[in-house]
Amino acid sequence: MFKGEKNKSNNDSPERLNRLVSGTELEGDLKTESNLRVDGRIVGNTQCNGKFVLGEKGIVNGNLNATTAELEGTIDGDIAIEDLLILRKTAIIKGGVTTGRLIIEDGAQIGGSIQTGDLSLKEQNQMVKEQTKSSRPLKDNSLEEKESVQSDVVY
User: Fold this and answer.
1) Collapsed DSSP state (helix, strand, coil) of residue 99
2) Considering only CA atoms, which of 136, 118, 60, 131 is closest in space to residue 91?
3) Domain range list for the chain
């Protein structure tokens, strides 16, 4: 180590990236302490204590909890993001969204309620658990089924 440089854990460093590539499917819940990029498919809940990136062809059939997230693909479940959530124009969310901050590109679709504000990750996780109890069971939806969605956002 260089003089004066502190040893610290950095979840944003490239060597701390987990990747689920296109053509790969994971069944079951996933938990990681580092960053995660998904271009394949996850059937189960995902907990990412770093940055979560969902590629344009990526699919998550389950709930997502993360520190930050950038989404281009499809999520069929509820989302709880501690800090910043970025929804790119190709993102399709079939569930509720709870996040500290939110950026939505024109074209992104959300099929549930949106709540923003300063909630702790623990509070967000509790909200997702409560929403999950009252929501429908997960089902397999193909990307071909792109339907018009409305959100509960009031401007």
Assistant:
1) strand
2) 60
3) 17-134
